[in-house]
Amino acid sequence: AQRKAYRSAILHSVADPKDVGLEDSYQYFEDGIMVVEDGHIVDIGNADDVLARLPQSVAIETFENKLITSGFIDTHIHYPQTGMIASYGEQLLDWLENYTFPEELRFKNPIYAQQVASLFLNELASNGTTTALVFGTVHKESVDVFFQEAEKRNLRMIAGKVLMDRNAPDYLTDTPESGYEESKALIERWHNRGRLLYAVTPRFAPTSTDEQLATVGKLLKEYPDVYMHTHLSENKKEIEWVLELFPERESYLDVYDHFGLLHDRSVFAHGIHLSDCECQRLSDTGSAIAFCPTSNLFLGSGLFNLPKMEKFKVNVGMGTDVGAGTSFSILQTMSEAYKIMQLQQEKLHPLKSLFLATLGGARALRLDDKIGNLAIGKEADFVVLDLHATQLMRFRMKQAKTLEEKLFVLMSLGDDRTVCQTYIFGDKAYDIAGNDNAQDNN
Ligand code: GUN
Ligand code: FE
C-alpha cells in the first residue's frame, strides 16, 4: 500500500488537561511530519526525526503556515434538520412543533433524504468534522440513505432511526413493535459495517411510551455494543412535562435509567439542568453528555455547567445540534462554549477546547482507541487548518505569540474558511480550493 507523508506544524490532544495538566495534554511539532498508510497513522514526530527513518521513496507533501490536527468530532447533530437551521422565534417545544416536525416529515421521501444526507456530509467535511453521532428521522429509510452516503465517503459515523410513539404528529410516529423491529433490522444491516456504527435513538422521554422505552432497554441488552442516543434536561418546560408524564420517576434521568438506557455507550444531548444525583448516576454508568453551546443559546435553553460535569467525572463531548445549533463548525461551537463559561465566571482554556473537540469527543463515544488524535495506529482522519485564512486572522495572528494564544484566536475567529483540507481514512475528502468535492451534487 501507498505510504504518504505530510510536513507541517502539527498539534494534537493526547490527554484531558484535567487529568494531566495543560502542559502534558498535547503534542506540538512546529516542523512535524505525519506518515499515513492504509488509512492509519504509522508515524509522527519532529521532521528531522521522522526524515531519518522515512524511506526515500515516500512522497512528502509540505504545508506552509498551516496546522494539521485531528478531525473534529460532533457528538450530537440531526442531519434531517439541515434544511430548517436558523428558524426564528421559538424555544424547544414550540420549535419542535412549528419547524422540526414538518421538516422531518419530508424524509419519508428517500430521494429528498439522500439529497440532504449528501449536502450534510459535505458540510461536515468543509467544517473539518470527520465523525458525528447523528439523529435520523422516524423513517428507517432516512438512516439507510445516511449510512449509504457515509459509506461512500469512508466515514466513521454513528446514526440511528428516531423512535417516537406519542406526543408527535401521527405522520411521524412509529409503535413500540415497529420501532423495535426496524431498529433491529438497521442494527443487523449497518452496525460495525466498515466504519459505521448504530445508535438506538429514542427522541426524548416525552415522545416515547413506557412500552417503547422498554424496547430500547431490550435492544441494548441484545446488542450491548450499540449506542443509545437521546436528549436530556434541555429546557425547563420540557423537564416539567417529563415529570408530569412519568410521576413515579424521581428525575428526568431516572426515566431513562428505569428502562435500562444508561450504559457506557449512552450519549445524552444537553444535560443543562441536572441535579447532583443525576450527574453521579451518569458518571457511575459511564454515560456521556453532548455539550451543545450554539443550540443552548439559540433556543434559550440555559448555560451548561461544565465544571460540575468534571467534578462528577462525567464524559463530555461537543455537539453542534444542528438545526437547533446555528453552525456546523466545531471551531464556532468552541467559541460559543467559551462565552457560556464566561457568563458563569468560568474559563475554557484553548487546550481544553482542543481536547473536547477531538479526543474528549472520541472518549465520550468510546472510540478513543480508533480516533480523536494523531497517535500511531489511529485512523487517519485529520484536518489542515489555515491560520491565515482571512485578512483579520492573518493580522491578529501576528500579535499572538504563544501556541495557546494562536489556538484561542483560531477557535474564536475560525470557521469553515479556516479548514483548507479534510482527510478521511487517509484520503483527501475536501479541499477549500474546490476541486475535490466530487460528491457535491446539490
Ligand atoms: N428534544 C427533542 N427533540 C429535539 C430536537 O430535535 N432538537 C433539540 N435540540 N432538542 C430536542
Ligand atoms: Fe438535538
From TrEMBL:
UniProt GO molecular function: guanine deaminase activity; zinc ion binding
Pathway(s) per entry: Purine metabolism; guanine degradation; xanthine from guanine: step 1/1
Alphabetical keyword list: Hydrolase, Metal-binding, Zinc
EC assignment: 3.5.4.3
Cofactor note: Binds 1 zinc ion per subunit.
Domain Amidohydrolase-related: start-end pairs: 68-424
Task of the protein: Catalyzes the hydrolytic deamination of guanine, producing xanthine and ammonia.
Protein name: Guanine deaminase
Organism: Photobacterium sanctipauli
Lineage, uppermost ranks: Bacteria, Pseudomonadati, Pseudomonadota, Gammaproteobacteria, Vibrionales
